[in-house]
Design goal:
single chain; five-stranded parallel beta sheet; 7 strands; alpha/beta; Rossmann fold; about 210 residues
Length: about 210
């Protein structure tokens, strides 16, 4: 598998199942995509999400009807607690060359990672389904130990542009950016006062 970031704006995501897992997947994708959730019932969390819901007993539907539901979908997700039913949906997706993520059953084409980020960065973490707990552990480790990471990315972006005007050597520019990344004082100031850090940069690196 190759990790990718995909713009899902306007894309159709179909989720089979209406439980807690389906709610998490729906919340994840509904920020960008057009989400359809198909199930006999839906968890309370689902009612608060901006998704389309279709009440159906998927286990009784013929393959042709499932194929009709997923027509034009970019991605289909199976979240039923019955692997055989998810696997059946996955096979239909494969026959129609539609990407499939399986929450319980045979692996599909897509793994949905644990995600963390801010305005300036996005990180996706996956153990290829082996241990969701480890993915969560890594995500929380980053969030706990680097609370100023978003501000650091913005700082690096701005500093990089400044250095282009005052430092002709690319190797020296790269060295300065790396020094700032490893400067514990800069990290500490970023956590408390992101604006004050500009003064420190000027004093320590831009003279």
């Amino acid at each position: 598998m190759i990790p990718l970031f995909v713009d899902c704006s306007g894309k159709r995501i179909v989720i089979f199942g209406g439980g807690e897992v389906a709610s998490r997947k729906a919340a994840y994708f509904s920020r960008e995509a057009d989400v359809l959730v198909v199930s006999r019932s839906f968890s309370p969390k689902m009612s608060a999400l901006p998704v389309e819901k279709k009440v159906l007993d998927v286990s009784t539907l013929p393959d042709e009807e499932i194929a009709r539901i997923i027509n034009q979908a970019f991605l289909v997700i199976g979240t039923f607690p019955h692997p055989a039913l998810n696997n059946r949906i996955g096979k239909i997706c494969k026959d129609h060359r539609i990407l499939f993520n399986n929450a319980d059953g045979e692996a599909g084409d897509v793994i949905i990672p644990s995600v963390t980020g801010g305005n300036n960065y996005l990180l996706a973490i996956s153990t290829r389904g082996s241990s969701p707990a480890v993915s969560r552990f890594i995500r929380e480790l980053i969030e706990t130990h680097y609370p100023a990471l978003d501000d650091m990315v913005a700082l690096q972006r701005d500093l990089r542009e400044q250095l282009k005007h005052i430092e002709p050597s690319q190797s020296r520019r790269n060295a300065i950016l790396w020094e700032v990344l490893n400067d514990s004082t800069i990290w500490e100031i970023l956590k408390k006062d992101p604006e004050k850090v500009r003064q420190q940069l000027k004093k320590r690196y831009l003279q």
